[in-house]
Design brief:
The complex is a heterodimer. Chain A has five helices and two strands. Chain A is mostly helical. Chain A has one domain. The model of chain A has no long low-confidence stretch (mean pLDDT 89). By secondary structure, chain B is mainly α. Chain B has two domains: 85 residues, Orthogonal Bundle (Rna Polymerase Sigma Factor, Chain: A), CATH 1.10.1740.10; 86 residues, Orthogonal Bundle (Arc Repressor Mutant, subunit A), CATH 1.10.10.10. Chain B is 66% helix and 0% strand. Chain B is built from nine helices and no strands. Chain B starts with 10 loop residues before the first helix and ends with a helix. The model of chain B has no long low-confidence stretch (mean pLDDT 90). Classes of the chains: A mainly alpha, B mainly alpha. The interface between A and B is large, with 40 and 48 residues.
């Protein structure tokens, strides 16, 4: 169970609802500042923010694997067999 | 293999040539985006749907509708929107309900994982498996925004949702992925 605290004028629930917007830099300056103040004084929310950031980094670092050659061969065969429609 | 000429031709130019019937340009467009479209098709397709078929339908639709491509720096959001339409034609989406209140979702995500669970973040295989275990809507939005780097506006166009809805879905999906990884750590 995570404690609900009231830090820097915000409840943890409010901060956690806005975390993605905050981490993506989409909140207004004043709102972002208040959330930063909350995160500075609330270990639980700071940890969650760090973990969500780590998740996003991990997703972005997933390798962009090339298309399986078999899938590519089937695709190219299918596309090559379909005549382009005349452009009108 | 990267074609050295490829990077010098913009998507906008390529699609324009495709619209004029240039098959070589079409093949270039396919090579440039096929892996991303396939990744998205795998993420957003429902069980039993074949991502390779969605890939094929996407590029056939792209060739048919190239003349309607709006001038954009990248064709990727447009292609992913075509892929989404191909998926929806096969099985229209139900109006989904995310019954779990955000507060409970955040609680689950903020809970302690097993000791060292975060070591899993360094393993692309574990992260990919956790992503694959999520509901389709979560997989879709995470793939669009956090793997393919679409903006919220672009993701909204692909999915047909409002920007606000995309923002909420992205947040919930990230929390669910975090909870999933912590749960896996507990189990392992």
């Amino acid at each position: 169970m995570v404690d609900e605290r009231f830090v820097a004028g915000l409840h943890c629930g409010e901060v956690r609802a806005d975390l993605t917007e905050h981490l993506d830099g989409r909140l207004s300056g004043e709102r972002a500042l208040r959330i930063d103040e909350h995160l500075d004084g609330c270990d639980g929310c700071r940890q969650l923010a760090d973990e969500v950031s780590a998740i996003v980094r991990a997703l972005r670092e997933l390798p962009d694997e090339p298309l399986d050659p078999e899938v590519e061969a089937r695709l190219l065969a299918a596309l090559g067999n379909e005549e382009p429609e005349p452009f009108g | 293999m990267v074609d050295p000429d490829d990077v010098r031709i913009s998507d906008e130019t390529l699609v324009g040539r495709v619209a004029a019937g240039d098959h070589h340009a079409f093949c270039r467009l396919v090579r440039r985006h096929q892996a991303a479209v396939y990744r998205f098709a795998r993420a957003a397709a429902r069980a039993g749907e074949e991502p390779g078929e969605i890939l094929r339908e996407t590029f056939l639709a792209a060739r048919r509708s190239a003349a309607r491509f709006r001038d954009e720096p990248s064709a990727r959001p447009w292609l992913l929107a075509l892929a989404r339409q191909a998926i929806d034609r096969r099985q229209p989406r139900q109006a989904e309900t995310d019954a779990l209140p955000l507060r409970e979702l955040a609680q689950a995500a903020a809970g302690p994982g097993s000791p060292g669970w975060d070591g899993a973040l360094a393993s692309s295989a574990i992260v990919a498996a956790a992503l694959a275990a999520l509901p389709v809507d979560d997989r879709e939005i995470l793939t669009l925004c956090d793997r393919e780097y679409l903006t919220l506006e672009e993701a909204a166009r692909v999915t047909g949702h409002s920007i606000a809805a995309v923002q909420t879905r992205l947040h919930r999906a990230r929390l669910r992925l975090l909870a999933e990884l912590k749960e896996r750590g507990r189990g392992g």
